[in-house]
Design goal:
The complex is a heterodimer of chains A (305) and B (263). By secondary structure, chain A is an all-alpha fold. Chain A has twelve helices and two strands. The longest helix of chain A is centred in the C-terminal third of the chain and has 31 residues. Classes of the chains: A mainly alpha (305), B alpha/beta (263). The interface between A and B is medium-sized, with 23 and 35 residues.
Chain lengths: 305, 263
């Protein structure tokens, strides 16, 4: 049970990094960026192939972050310079990335294992001698990464450039008439978003011990689900609270999903139904406000009528 | 100050919907002129402002601001010279940002943006001092989100933001049309005061002929993409709304007969 809770929490933390990336594109820039389904496995592919070639895992993870940023930049260029619609720009990047990820890995999946002599961040964490069980150290490390990402995001979006990016998502006409080139703010925002997504993928590959070409499928939905769940739980307006809500959302979402996977077989679900459960969960969360208002209306009508 | 030569803008060029929005307009605006622009719907008033602000690029002609050719400059680069207020109060400010964050954006207009905090203690103090001159009590609500303000307050804030960095040219596009009459009057007098104090060169589009004559130093009337009337000085002082309407119908009739002759 403790093992289950810790793995759910670990995955929740990794999802939180992904969700923070999705939060930047969807909520701050108001840009529905589907690149995520490609940039998440991109991060995993870059980190895994580098680690499999005996690169230092910190370098490999940072390389994944950087290349994820470039993937976001590519989507941004499609939209700002070639005037392709946001949704289509993301889909195009995603489909291009599928082949690119295969090229990077050279095969559909890479296993990372200490028995093969691969050194991942997890291998390093396991060597740290603290009076704590290993799974606690790993969790603490992920928590630290999430907190650092959150603080840096909060700070960045209060700087002059960050503020211009937020205004771009809020009111493009206004920020252009205030002398800001919105092409550049969009490019920065998208690249930052996908850098975080790729970081999440890189960490996940090391945590799970493999990178797979199919691991990106539906990640955008998972990210969105986290963002929306967070918003439903903590309706915040201030940026710091909003990013906190996103992290909470990711952890809750992942916990619900883990529970569904663990006990779902009682209701006839199989592990292969994971994406179906994900989809249904998001539908329930999204329809929640509508259902709630309808339900309220009915109660009200009964009271009046 | 602003020199517009032979300006033409055609929408949907080469299609059945082709629409000549601006027809060979020449306009010279000397510094500190406050021009009010009137005309019926579709006369090209807003398009003219959009061309000057760079939101649209013209098909023919050129625009100079202070002898500097801005014809092909994108809107965000022209923003250094031009302050603009929109008809819809929601368009001039960012609702999800606080008042001070909106002001910081305006404060940084035309400046290089970096990784410094946008709202510093010093800037906040300056915003508070300058906002208090508006007399709208906004200086005590710096950390409120702009979405919480009323339309009138948002429009006042937008005007304040537009002049914060002393633009050379102010463009007002029916900026009181969406407000209730009392607020509209307030915003208008505020605008007038700001324009006079800062000696701004201004173009103001309005549907209200009375306003067009009451404010400003010069009035132009547009019809079907052309400037059909341009009055200033003594002649304008004596003008009433009825005179203006008479002149409008007179010119319209003449134009109609001209067009008939051509056919």
């Amino acid at each position: 049970m403790i093992g289950f809770a810790f793995s759910a929490l670990n995955e929740g933390m990794l999802f939180a990094i992904l969700a923070l990336g999705v939060f930047i594109s969807f909520r701050i820039l108001h840009f529905p960026d589907l690149t995520v389904d490609g940039s998440y496995p991109l991060g995993a592919a870059v980190a895994a192939s580098l680690i499999a070639r005996n690169t230092d895992p910190i370098t490999a993870t940072l390389a994944a972050l950087l290349i994820g940023g470039i993937a976001g930049l590519f989507t941004g260029v499609l939209h700002t310079k070639l005037k392709i619609a946001p949704l289509l720009s993301g889909i195009l990047s995603m489909i291009c990335l599928y082949s690119i990820n295969l090229r990077i890995m050279g095969k559909p999946n890479i296993s990372l294992s200490p028995y093969l002599g691969h050194k991942t961040l997890i291998t390093y964490l396991k060597k740290i001698s603290l009076p704590l069980p290993t799974y606690c150290i790993i969790l603490l490390f992920f928590v630290a990464v999430v907190i650092i990402s959150k603080v840096l995001i909060d700070l960045f979006f209060h700087t002059e450039i960050g503020l211009a990016i937020r205004a771009t998502g809020d009111n493009e006409l206004m920020i252009r008439s205030q002398g800001v080139n919105t092409d550049i703010t969009k490019l920065i925002g998208l690249s930052l978003s996908n850098a975080l997504v790729a970081l999440s993928g890189a960490l996940y590959a090391q945590y799970q011990g493999f990178s797979d070409i199919g691991m990106g499928i539906g990640m955008i939905v998972a990210g969105l689900a986290s963002v929306i769940t967070g918003q439903a739980l903590i309706p915040a307006k201030k940026l710091g609270m909003m990013s906190f809500a996103v992290i909470t959302g990711a952890i809750v979402y992942r916990a619900v999903l883990a529970a569904a996977l663990k006990w779902g077989y009682n209701f006839g679900f199989k592990p292969t139904d994971l994406k179906l459960i994900t989809g249904l969960l998001v539908i329930i969360i999204l329809s929640f406000p509508v259902l709630r208002s309808k339900f309220k209306l009915k109660i009200l009508q009964k009271k009046i009528g | 100050m602003v020199k517009i030569e032979n300006l033409t803008k055609i929408f949907f060029r080469g299609t059945v919907n082709e629409n000549i929005a601006i027809k060979n307009i020449d306009l010279h605006v000397p510094a500190q002129d406050f021009i009010t622009i009137v005309g019926s719907n579709g006369a090209g008033k807003t398009t003219l402002l959009n061309l000057i602000s760079g939101r649209f690029l013209p098909d023919v002609g050129n625009i100079k601001i202070n002898e500097y050719d801005v014809t092909n400059l994108p809107d965000y680069e022209r923003a250094k010279f031009v302050g603009r207020i929109f008809q819809n109060p929601l368009e001039g400010t960012a609702a999800s940002l606080t008042i001070e964050e909106n002001l910081a954006i305006a404060y940084l207009k035309g400046k290089r943006k970096g990784l410094h905090l946008a709202v510093t203690r010093r800037r906040r103090k300056e915003f508070r001092e300058r906002l208090s001159e508006l007399g709208l009590n906004l200086e005590n609500r710096l950390q409120d989100r702009v979405g919480l303000l009323s339309g009138g307050q948002r429009q006042a804030l937008a005007i304040f933001m537009a002049i914060l960095t002393h633009p050379q040219l102010l463009l007002l596009d029916e900026h009181t049309a969406n407000l209730d009459p009392k607020t509209a009057q307030k915003i208008l007098s505020l605008t007038d005061k700001i324009i006079e104090e800062n000696q701004l060169t201004t173009l103001m589009v309005t549907h209200n002929m009375e306003q067009a004559l009451q404010f400003g130093t010069r009035t132009i009337m547009m019809h079907e993409g052309e400037i059909i009337l341009d009055i200033s000085g003594k002649k304008r002082e004596k003008l009433t709304v009825n005179d203006l309407l008479d002149m409008f119908f007179q010119i319209k009739k003449e134009k109609l007969t001209e067009d008939k002759l051509l056919l």
